[in-house]
Design a protein that fits this description.
72% helix, 331 residues, mainly alpha
Length: 331
C-alpha cells in the first residue's frame, strides 16, 4: 500500500545534507495529492491489467492444449476403430469364402451322388427291359412251338385218318370183289371209290383250314411279341446325361472403406486483453486535471505565492524558510 505521507524529496535532501521547506497553499496541496494518487492508481491499474492479460493468455494456452489433446485422442481412437473394422471385415470375408467353397463341394457331391443314382436306376431299367424282351422271345418261341406241335398233330391225325380210309377202301373193294359179279360189283367199287374221294376232299379242306388257322395264330403270336417288346422298350428309362458342373462360388466385390476424417482441434476462445495504457493514461489525465484545477482555483482567488525567504540555515543547512501561521504545507 502506498504511504501518502512519505516524503521522498525530504529524504533525498536529508541524505544530501540539505533540507528543503516548500510552502504550498492547502488547495494546491490537495490537488497535488489527488493528482499523484490518480497517477499512482493509473500505474497500479495498468500493472493489474497486464497481470490479468497474462492470466488470460495462460488460460487460453491451457484450453488450447486441452483441445489439442482431445483431438489427438479422438483421432487415435478413430484410427484404431478403422483398423479393427478392416480386420473384422477381412476375417468375415475369409469366413464367407470358406463357407461358399464348402457349400460348393457339398452341392457337387450331392449332384454326383444323384447322377450315380440315376445311372444305377437306368442300368436297372435296361436290365429289366432286356429281361422282359428275353421273356417275350421265350414266350413267343413257346407259342410258336405249341402251335407248330398242334399243326404237326393235325398232320399226323390227318395221315392216320387217310391211312384208315385207305384200309377201309381196300376192305370195301375186297368185299365188292367177292360179292356179285357184273354191274352190281362195278357199282359197288365205284361207290367205294367215290366215298374215298369225298372223304379225302373233306379231309384236305379241313387240313388246309387248320393250316391257315395255325398260320394266323403264329402271326398273332408275332404281333403279341412285338407289342410286348414295344411296351418293354417304352418302360425303359431314357439314358441320363451328366448335368453341367456347378460353377465355382463367387464373392461380392470388396467394399470400399474411407479412412476416418481427421479431427482438427477446436480453437480456444481468444484471451480477452485489457488495455494496459488506458488506466495509466486515465490516471495521468485525471491527476493532471486535478492539479490543473487546483492551480486554476488558487489563481482565481488571487493567491499570492506563499514562498518565504529562500536561504541557507546554519551555513547551508536549510534553503527554504518555513510557512508562517497562514496554513502552509511542508513537503
Amino acid at each position: 500500500m502506498i504511504n501518502k505521507n512519505y516524503d521522498l524529496l525530504g529524504e533525498q535532501l536529508a541524505e544530501s545534507g540539505l533540507e528543503m521547506n516548500i510552502v504550498i497553499a492547502p488547495a494546491v496541496a490537495g490537488a497535488l495529492i489527488g493528482g499523484a494518487t490518480s497517477i499512482i492508481g493509473g500505474i497500479f491499474g495498468s500493472s493489474q491489467a497486464a497481470a490479468q492479460n497474462r492470466e488470460a493468455r495462460n488460460a487460453e494456452k491451457k484450453a488450447q492444449k486441452q483441445l489439442n489433446k482431445i483431438a489427438e485422442h479422438t483421432n487415435e481412437y478413430r484410427g484404431r476403430a478403422h483398423d479393427v473394422l478392416l480386420e473384422n471385415y477381412a476375417i468375415d470375408r475369409a469366413f464367407e469364402k470358406d463357407i461358399l467353397i464348402e457349400k460348393w463341394k457339398y452341392d457337387t457331391e450331392i449332384q454326383d451322388f444323384g447322377f450315380l443314382s440315376v445311372i444305377e436306376q437306368y442300368g436297372k431299367s435296361v436290365q429289366n427291359t432286356q429281361d422282359r424282351l428275353t421273356y417275350n422271345s421265350i414266350a413267343a418261341m413257346q407259342a410258336y412251338e405249341s402251335e407248330q406241335s398242334a399243326l404237326n398233330d393235325l398232320f399226323t391225325e390227318d395221315a392216320f385218318s387217310r391211312q384208315g380210309m385207305l384200309v377201309d377202301q381196300l376192305q370195301n373193294e375186297g368185299k365188292a370183289a367177292l360179292g356179285q359179279a357184273g354191274n352190281s360189283r362195278t357199282k359197288a367199287l365205284q361207290s367205294s371209290i367215290a366215298a374215298l374221294g369225298r372223304n379225302s376232299a373233306i379231309m384236305d379242306a379241313s387240313l388246309s383250314s387248320s393250316v391257315e388257322q395255325s398260320q394266323r395264330n403264329m402271326q398273332q403270336i408275332g404281333l403279341q411279341r412285338y407289342a410286348a417288346d414295344l411296351q418293354a422298350n417304352a418302360s425303359m428309362m431314357i439314358k441320363p446325361r451328366k448335368p453341367p458342373a456347378i460353377p465355382l462360388p463367387m464373392q461380392a466385390p470388396e467394399r470400399i472403406f474411407i479412412e476416418p476424417m481427421e479431427v482438427l482441434p477446436g480453437q480456444a476462445a481468444p484471451a480477452l486483453q485489457q488495455s494496459t495504457s488506458a488506466p495509466f493514461l486515465g490516471g495521468l489525465i485525471q491527476g493532471a486535471s486535478q492539479i490543473g484545477m487546483g492551480i486554476a482555483n488558487q489563481a482565481a482567488n488571487n493567491y499570492q505565492s506563499p514562498w518565504g525567504q529562500i536561504g541557507s540555515t546554519n551555513g547551508g543547512g536549510n534553503i527554504f524558510s518555513q510557512i508562517d501561521a497562514r496554513g502552509g504545507l511542508r513537503l
